[in-house]
Amino acid sequence: MAYTVRRVSGLSGVSIRTLHFYDEIGLLKPAYVNGNGYRYYEEPQLLKLQQILFYRELGLELSEIKSILGRADFEKAAALKAHRAVLEQQLARTQALISTINKTIDHVKGTKKMSSEEMFDGFKVAAGASRSNEPVELRGEPTDCKVSGQDTNGEMCIFEFTGLSSGPRRRHCEQDEWIYVIEGELQFAVGENQFHAGPGESVFVPRQTPYAWASANGQLARIVDLYQPAGRMEEFFRELSKHNSGPPVHEALSIDEFRRLFQEHGMELVGPPLVGEWQIADGRIVQVRP
After folding, report:
1. Each residue of 62-71: pLDDT tens digit?
2. Which fold would CATH assign to domain 137-289?
């Protein structure tokens, strides 16, 4: 079934002028244009418009959306699952705020006493807790989101991370990263530089710079990890957490799937971790040295 631009505007709430603009910049082309110059859209274009609107809700610029949707490996189902995860996180945060509001109403009306601590339950993040009340663990260790991209309109997000390493070398395409060491002794490789960092020290990793870090003594480290802008790091860590049981994610996925996991979240996989040695066999990563 074909839809006129006016019909698509009515269905989606996107103005006709905006749909014309999306066509002009190559973000959303109609299925065809008839002899009179009228644009017509079919179901694939409607689904693509839905994706555009989802990404706009997440605060992405049109140029970023065009780049994401234009990738040969873009998968609609995977994107929809990622959108759902973000909405579930927003819902959890909204429910926490509603609960605080309800308690405050009862307190103000005098029907039920509210403690001073409860007044801020919807705003603060307790030690060992995550911003969305949705715990994320990577290989059994916590990765707690302390400031969500939803809190900052996508400007940044902050995590408290416990682990032995950052995983494989990667570069962030559009994000700067700042790492503050709370506990542990870490060895860093940032670009061509290698150095040590301990408690109280911090490391800045500019976007497009390959990097990795690992524990220098085999003991768990605890860091504060800030990303600016927020990008899709929250979704990335949730995807990694799905591989807590069974083989590690780099063994569970093929090398192409592993690369795509990073690409879908704004990063490029550039090499193995600082500790251990990887080989590629039959399209999969094999860890030959721990």
Report:
1. 888 888 888 8
2. Jelly Rolls (2.60.120)
